[in-house]
From TrEMBL:
Name the record gives this protein: 4-hydroxy-tetrahydrodipicolinate reductase
Subunit and interaction comment: Homotetramer.
GO molecular function, one term: 4-hydroxy-tetrahydrodipicolinate reductase
Subcellular location: Cytoplasm
Top EC class for this record: oxidoreductase
Protein's organism: Uliginosibacterium sediminicola
Residues given in the record as (S)-2,3,4,5-tetrahydrodipicolinate binding sites: H156, G165, T166
């Protein structure tokens, strides 16, 4: 059966890519496209950015979108995602959430919504990045003593949250593998006379510039050698295709919180 899709933030960088992906993915049908109530794009065909005619006009009416759609894909901002989750709960429909930058208590709210509706929530929908999460689990098991862990990420100049959701997830995966709690061992910046590096810490470095789509590297550095595990995105399409896969995965599910590891069968 076809999954009827609504896409939020449809004029955004990911929104445009998701609309394009929806036109190329068997088993999904775009039925609604959302943007802010004050967006200049309201009323335009959702496919205008990609040069295709979808027959779906961009609107700000979330409840009307859920009346048509089985699933909303949301790559917006945390405050918008939480409002969309309320509408999804009212309608009893599914959500795929790619938005990053949530506070811990907001993540708990998402988990609470997922007791009532099915949700895929993942900081990175790309298959390659999810493969890297698995590689990091293995690396942390083997390189569990004497290696300093540092996470580097680089993104475009327009990104508003740091470190990236993906970098934080990478930190969480490695911390768990090493038996540490990321909240206690993360170091998010260094400046001035910092003193020597504490061995139990996990450091983060953030670069912002130009149109970098998304680079992530985790370094395990010891005395005499280092291991680097990297992913570099050259296009946003892997995030969009992963999201289509996530929407198809949610078909027929009543509730529950899932991530791309569930979607890809990596757990
Ligand atoms: N999980 C993953 O694989 C990936 C996650 N992301 C994440 O997705 C999110 C979006 O990224 P990106 O597309 O680059 O961002 P953009 O700023 O390009 O797009 C965001 C879209 O959401 C809309 N929006 C923002 N606030 C609201 C609101 N309060 N109500 C309704 N709509 C709103 C924006 O409208 P307007 O422009 O009018 O403000 C815009 O259309 C980020 O959190 C990013 O980190 C990105 C790529 C991959
Ligand atoms: O904002 C972006 O562009 C991206 N955001 C996600 C993140 O914060 O991890 C995923 C990807 O790196 C692109």
């Amino acid at each position: 059966m076809t999954v009827k899709l609504a896409i939020a933030g449809s004029s955004g960088r990911m929104g445009r890519m998701l609309i394009e992906a929806s036109q190329q993915t068997p088993g999904v049908e775009l039925v609604a496209a959302l943007d802010r109530p004050d967006s200049v794009w309201l009323g335009r065909d959702a496919g205008d950015f990609a040069g295709v005619n979808t027959g779906v006009a961009i609107s700000a009416d979330v409840d009307a979108a859920f009346a048509l759609a089985d699933c909303l894909i949301d790559f917006t901002r945390p405050e918008a995602t939480l409002l969309h989750l309320e509408a999804a709960r009212r309608a009893g429909k599914a959500m795929v959430i790619g938005t990053t930058g949530f506070k811990p208590e907001e993540k708990q709210q998402i988990a609470a919504f997922a007791e009532h509706i099915p949700v895929v929530f993942s900081a990175n929908m790309a298959t390659g990045v999810n493969a890297v999460f698995k590689l990091l689990e293995v690396a942390a098991q083997i390189l569990n003593s004497g290696y300093d862990v540092e996470v580097y990420e680089a993104h475009h100049r327009f990104k508003v949250d740091a470190p990236s959701g993906t970098a934080l997830r990478m930190g969480e995966v490695v911390a768990k593998g090493l038996g540490r709690d990321l909240a206690e061992c993360a170091v998010y910046g260094r400046e001035g006379v910092t003193g020597e590096r504490k061995p139990e810490t996990i450091g983060f470095a953030t670069v912002r510039g130009g149109d970098i789509v998304g680079d992530h590297t985790v370094t395990f550095a010891a005395l005499g050698e280092r291991v680097e595990i990297s992913h570099k995105a050259g296009s946003r399409m892997p995030y969009a295709s992963g999201s289509m896969r996530a929407a198809l995965f949610l078909q027929g599910k009543r509730n529950g919180l899932f991530d791309m590891q569930d979607v890809l069968g990596l757990k």
